Prior knowledge:
The complex is a heterodimer.
Chain A: H1 4-10, H2 21-32, E1 41-42, E2 48-49, H3 60-65, H4 82-85, H5 108-119, H6 160-168, E3 171-175, E4 183-187, H7 196-201, E5 209-213, H8 221-227, E6 235-237, H9 245-249, E7 259-261, H10 270-276, E8 283-285, H11 293-302, E9 307-309
Parallel strand pairs in A: 4-5, 5-6, 6-7, 7-8, 8-9
Antiparallel strand pairs in A: 1-2, 3-4
Helix pairs in contact in A: 2-5, 10-11
Chain B: H1 8-23, E1 51-57, H2 74-77, E2 82-84, E3 91-93, H3 97-100, E4 106-112, H4 119-128, H5 141-149, E5 159-162, E6 181-183, H6 201-221, H7 225-241, H8 256-262, H9 266-279, E7 284-289, H10 298-322, E8 329-335, E9 338-339, E10 353-354, E11 358-364, E12 371-373, E13 375-376, E14 383-385, H11 390-400, E15 409-410, E16 416-417
Parallel strand pairs in B: 1-7, 1-8, 4-12, 5-6, 5-7
Antiparallel strand pairs in B: 2-3, 4-11, 8-11, 9-10, 13-14, 15-16
Helix pairs in contact in B: 4-11, 9-10
Amino acid sequence: MLRPVSLLLLSVLPAAAEVDFRKEIAPILAKVCLECHKAPAKDASGKMVNPKGNLRIDAPSHLLKGGSGGPAIEPGDPDKSPLYQRVILPQNDEDVMPPKGKGTPLTFKQTEALKNWILEGAKFGDWKGSDAAATVTPANKPGPKTAADPISANLTDPPADVMTKLNGMGAVVHPAAVGSKLVSVAWVSSTSQVGDKEVELMKPLANNISELDLSDTKITDAAMAVIGTFPRLTKLNISNTAITDTGIASLKGAPNLDFLAAHSTSISDTSLDVLKGMKKLKSVYLWKTRVTATSASTLQKALPGSTVSVE
Amino acid sequence: MRFNNADEISRRQFMLNIARTTLGVSLAPMLGHTVASAADFVPTRPRAAKSVIFLMMSGGMSHLDTLDVMGKKEAVMGKTKAVSTSVSGIQLSDSLPKTAKMMHHIAIFNGMNTTQGAHEQGQYLMERSYVMRGTIVHPAIGSWVVRLAGKRNKNLPGFVAVSTDPNNASGGFMGAKFSGVPIGEPGEGLQDSMQPGTISKDDFDKRLKLADSLNNQFHTQIRNSAIREHKELYSDALRLMKCEDLKAFDVRKEPTEMQELYGKSRFAQGCMLARRLVEHGVRYVQVTHGGWDTHYDNFTAVPARCKDLDDGLSALIQDLHRRGMLQDTLIALGTEFGRTPEIVTEHQDGRDHFPKAFSCLMAGGGIHGGVIHGKKDDRGYNVTDGLTTPMDFNATIGYALGLPIDQVVISPSQRPFTIADKGKPVTQLFT
């Protein structure tokens, strides 16, 4: 049990400054890690060498993105940051960094600096590393085509800054699956604060959004006009909102929709004509709407292999 | 630094006590401020389930009298009869008539097999994927899920344990922040999280302002993780007290038709609470239903347990389905072991522990309904096909969520662990 007296003792210690990335961390990384974790380059024999574990540490974007094993840093949490965890492993551990014989282990002072820097939020200050030289940002760089998935064909990476911003606002935004450029967006926390304005903010992700959950929010039919322009939207939840038949009419612009949950709305049979034209629809949830059981079964027949549920 | 030597619990307790005495507020010990957000998690598959509702049948649920009926063999079945379900060719016990109507959403695991024949050890293996040891406490599956997939609602805990012994929902070596937040009575909501009624809002805000001004001075002078943790815990607690998401815990907000659908039993109310919680982004809810240890009078005790189970489970499936939430929510029903096919007549027709063969089920979460995985012989004695261990069952939960089930987490004792040990997911059950 901590006694108040230790608080008093601590209060007379001198104040410590934040860790400066450029001064304290960058030199460690450059000296110990960079040789193996830099941009792909040709070695002496002309052979292309990729960074080990696909992890590059030569720019903030690469450090945050991480390598094959996921992000290298979890800002604020050294326990979840491999960049820190791997350098403090015992020397006989096969995962220790730098690997045996490939450089000097970090000193305690260095690992502590690294830990504190991550604890303080892993801020890079004005350091840009190789990001400064990059003329193409990841957002507008054309990615490799994924032939197996026609929906993702010709799709570019979602803008990371928009995703980060929305996440900061309480949305849960992440790639739809590992390696996918499609994005899943769900507004989960404090949904009464979420409305048409937030939907506007998602516009830069329009091409990438495949799953969208806006249930329980304050969105109106105006938001549906925006959502209706998301070409790759496959799954939409607008349950328990003020959406009406007018909003559903906007969905004509979302031809790939196969899942629609809209329970507890004022949607009526009027909407079913629109939905009948959306041939990819497989699952439709209309409990507590004005849609009657008879019309629901008509819709189910019009959409082969679908489930239209009203109760 | 000496400060860091204080262990997590006592430090936290200290902060909570200080907050109680100086501010007149009670804080819920549920604030995983350093738990990652779900935004940082990328599922291995698109459309993976988002949440799990784990229904733990504690005591050892008799497979023969519930999910794996053996036709008309009276020597094995005793008084239990079979009832047909919504899926032709599949029968359940006549004690589960409502669940039978939901069979098209359900996959039954009839090849369950465990190595543990005692309650505590059996539950431990089912709920944690590892055999109980004296030297370490393994994290509960709910803790693993939150650790690997993060929290979806930043204002709510990632893991809630309803009517569950907190020891069965502990974060183990992952620490208290990954433990399930315990809810004893589902009908009573979350305790210690309301603003105290005796203090006016003005006074409350005034006290906070004062506390803040004192704190800020202190925080700028001292850089220390323990102090930072306190500050975060404290602001998390404040956010929670003012938060609309807290209503997720209040089943009294459910309309009469919902109360009627689920019924009044503690277990069914727990199921209703679980639905509210996953609706608000809670990752993992465990609801425990006890009393399955039917050594005595099995054929009276099991139908009584089944009544509450049948009400809760069938309502939960129906409710999640019509809200369009069943694809996103995996319902998993587990138990520590089954019960003997032999009926012990000297114990008023009881059944004893039987780890060799038992049954569990899953529904939703992308599971293909209306199927049976695994098979026992015609006495319900030996698994003859599709043998599934608790580790395989947990791996399947992980797979449903799109978790990297082979991701290793190193314990503070430097040992490697995974969510399902060496379990293999039953992937053919997924659509």
